Amino acid sequence: MTSPDSVLDKDGVRLTVEDAVATVTLINPDKRNAQSPALWRALVHAGRSLPGNVRVVVLRGEGKSFSAGLDRQAFTPEGFDGEPSFIDLARGSDAELDAVIAEYQEAFTWWRRSDIVTIAAVQGHAIGAGFQLALACDLRVVAQDVQFAMRETSLGLVPDLTGTHPLVSLVGYARALEICATGRFVHAEEAERTGLANLVVAPEELDGAVQDLAAALIAAPRDAMIETKALLQGAAGRSYEDQRVAERAAQARRLRDLAGLSD
Fold first, then answer.
1. Which distant-in-sequence residues (6+ apart) come within 8 Å of 188 by Cβ?
2. 118 to 77, 109, 246: CA distances (angstroms)
3. For residue 263, what pLDDT is reported?
């Protein structure tokens, strides 16, 4: 392994790369890694800055909390320096507001790219936007002290940072509705039992567990992993027969590639 190279360090986000593993770290522990539009733009930049050899991306937060969610300063009249406040945004047209929210969502979409596998290493609070950022990743390894919560509905809002689709896919409609409507905490045991967490470990074992998982993912040939991820991502939208067809087509591509017969 080589030493990690720093690729990006701005607006509360650091991106480092070590061989085929990139690590995106939220680096504002004093505010429990609260999120802002500037941080979301930095996350988009991180996704666009990944070197082509990266196969696994780890998302983590410094300090005791993964991310306590949206920085409440967004709801004050002054908002953030150089940014329109959410109150100002609400005064815009429907089209303008839609465009702004779509821009914010981009920070949460690239984690599902088929050419990488993403792992959220989650400890402490993962609330609101923090919960949705963890849900944006393919896999979640969590510490025993994790506290997931979707608090948007309790504030008179809705979860709008792409978290509703993966939440329903993982835990089902009824439990997802109950989690969002009540804003209650989901702790480690429930997270593992319902599929929100792939693995639960002691807080001091979190980094090591994520490193082991990343190494296991890299052990598989890259093209096979890409095809497998794409196959699984599309499964929910296909019928059983259509998925059979997709499996055959994917396997044919792999066999031809292995035989040196691909175009």
1. 142, 143, 144, 145, 146, 197, 200
2. 36, 11, 23
3. 66
Neighbours of 67 (CB within 10 A): 30
Residues 110-146: tens digit of each pLDDT = 999 999 999 999 999 999 999 999 999 999 999 999 9
Give one DSSP letter per residue of 84-149, joined into a string: --HHHHHTS-HHHHHHHHHHHHHHHHGGG-TT-EEEEEE-SEEETHHHHHHHHSSEEEEETT-EEE
Q: How far is CA 94 from CA 76, 98, 101, 152, 164, in A?
A: 21, 6, 11, 20, 21
The maximal CA–CA distance of the chain, rounded, in angstroms, is 63
| Nearest Cα to Cα of residue 132 among 229, 206, 35 | 35
Distance CA 154, CA 26 (A): 25
CA angle 149, 151, 153 (to 5 degrees): 135
Q: Select from 217, 233, 166, 197 the least CA-distant residue to 66.
A: 197
pLDDT one-digit tens code per residue, 25-69: 999 999 999 999 999 999 999 999 999 999 999 999 999 999 999
pTM over 0.90: yes
Q: Contact 157/138 with Cβ under 8 angstroms?
A: no
What are the residues whose beta carbons fall under 8 Å from the beta carbon of 82, sequence distance 6 or more?
Answer: none
- Quote the CA–CA distance of 217 and 116 in Å, as a whole number: 10
What percent of the chain shows pLDDT beyond 70?
Answer: 98
